[in-house]
Design a protein that fits this description.
This protein is mainly beta and 145 residues long. It contains two helices and eleven strands, in the order ββαββββββββαβ. The strands form two sheets. A six-stranded antiparallel beta sheet has the order 1-2-3-10-5-8. It has a five-stranded antiparallel beta sheet with strand order 7-6-9-4-11.
């Protein structure tokens, strides 16, 4: 019996991949530069995010996804807590050259203290519909507007 050969995953990734257009709104932008769904990579996704000073992001938790956020420029207040807890378990100031990791199932929010650019590396791809299914939005929010 012949066993079919599997093509190495990296042979399917183009040398110069076509990138998706960034999503831009009043807070800044999100630019998916790699995704397991669109490129066939083994890592879930890599997203470059810009955020304007005063912007609040996240205020949610993920059912399955986890992510590492590496700061290229700027500063943010990062807050996290276990679901159902009355108070945050962590409040950190994250600056350029630093990173913060968020595991699945942890409430988290970010407030940007300066115009910022960070790179998020996540377990899962960033297809919008799948991303939304993985989210539980916090009400009330962890950081209020």
């Amino acid at each position: 019996m012949d066993i079919p050969k599997r093509t190495k995953w990296w042979k399917k990734v183009p040398t110069v991949p076509k990138l998706e257009r960034p999503h831009v709104d009043r807070r800044g932008s999100l630019h998916v530069i790699a995704s397991s769904r669109t490129l066939g990579t083994r890592f879930g996704s890599v997203v470059v995010i810009s955020s304007k000073k005063g912007t609040i992001r996240a205020n949610h938790r993920h059912r399955q996804d986890s992510h590492l956020c590496y700061f290229v420029t700027g500063r943010m207040l990062y807050v996290e807590r276990k679901p159902g807890a009355a108070r945050p378990s962590k409040r950190l100031i994250v600056k350029a050259g630093q990173a913060v990791f968020t595991p699945p199932g942890i409430d988290h929010a970010m407030k940007f203290l300066a115009d910022s650019i960070f790179i998020t590396v996540a377990d899962r791809h960033r297809d919008q519909a799948d991303y939304e299914k993985d989210l539980i939005r916090l009400n009330p929010p962890l950081i209020a507007r």
